[in-house]
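Hello Y.,

Per our agreement to keep a running log of every chain we model this quarter, I'm adding this entry. I've kept the format consistent with earlier entries: sequence first, then predicted structure.
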Amino acid sequence: MAREARRAQRAHRRHRGMALPSALMFASMMLATSAAWLEASIAQTRLSAGVHEHLRATQAADGALALCVEALRAGVAPVLPAPLESPPPWMKVETFDGPAAYEPVPSWPGSASAPRCVIEALRVEGRADAGGYRITARGFGATRAAQAWLQLALWREGGRERRAWRRIVTPGAVE
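Predicted structure for the entry above:
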């Protein structure tokens, strides 16, 4: 029994002082894990805020597009002549800040600026009764950096109107 007691004492002496380093290692692992979760949480929050602002900008552009089509039909929106130069006027940011831009509403909820649209006449070569319009709308999120651009082409031929396409576009030059 004495021999076993001495063996236990030796083993106890060998492991003496191991509690503090073990506790510190465990605490540092917990701290590193918490820091990683915090970074992941911050990144996710930024991502969802960016998606939210993009959706707000897209809704503003979509609303402006619909209102600009109504204004075009009513004859109150300015229409640019068929573009002869390249790039077309809608690709130039300054076009949206000039007199050719139409602002269908003075503001949009939560947006940094009111949405605007530019309407360009389109020609069909050799057909006097056919023509169309390219309507490009730009909407904003809470900042001017969060922008969405939507475009719609309306074709009129023989008294009928059809929508040729609608898409999200990336402008050639953004502020």
